[in-house]
Design a protein that fits this description.
alpha+beta, 4 strands, 2 domains, elongated, 180 residues, 4-stranded antiparallel sheet, plasmid, binds zinc ion
Length: 180
């Protein structure tokens, strides 16, 4: 693992990944995705710090081209976009390729369901001047399958993030906690 990132920095990246996991995964290997992630700005607060992280790591903030924790005014650890990209470039080729596959799978599922519509006008028109909605309204089975796939894809993203952040295993990252 690259020696340039401290354990606290890795926990901070994992914290950012709790809310933007797939986006962070893409940002590791792609400059445009990193710019999009930074453009979201803002941050997140959790009731408790991620497992294994310092107790004070209950929030993070995006400031310009870096992530800081716990906040903008009381920064105890920061990680820059350049450091995250450097980590991405240092990943083994096999992991890099699997991240690409995972992102492609996310994209394919997004594309497959992009035109899905959940409005109540699949069979009846909303008013006298129009017909029923012409978009595809998924059946309960189709919708359940989509949710199942989406959950699987999220788990795949988190698994790859864990491998990228802690290739030596041992340290369990807390990527699944619920945010307030
Ligand atoms: Zn519709």
């Amino acid at each position: 693992m690259p020696a340039t990132l401290s354990e606290e920095q890795r926990h901070l990246i994992a914290f950012v990944a709790r809310t933007n996991g797939t986006m962070l995964l893409e940002a590791m290997i792609d400059d445009h995705a990193m710019q999009a992630l930074l453009a979201r700005a803002g941050g997140a607060t959790a009731p408790t710090a991620p497992d294994g992280a310092p107790d004070w790591m209950t929030s993070y903030w995006t400031v310009a081209d870096k992530f800081v924790s716990p906040g903008r005014d009381k920064m105890r650890v920061k990680v820059t976009a350049a450091q995250v990209r450097k980590l991405g470039r240092s990943l083994p080729a096999g992991l890099h390729a699997e991240i690409r596959q995972c992102l492609d799978a996310h994209g394919a599922e997004r594309e497959r369901t992009r035109e899905w519509c959940y409005c109540p006008y699949a069979h009846t028109a909303p008013n006298a001047h129009s017909g029923p909605c012409a978009r595809h309204h998924p059946s309960a089975d189709e919708d359940a399958e989509h949710r199942h796939r989406a959950a699987e894809l999220r788990t795949w993203s988190q698994t790859l993030l864990r491998q990228a952040l802690y290739p030596a295993a041992g340290v369990q990252l807390d990527l699944f906690a619920t945010l307030r």
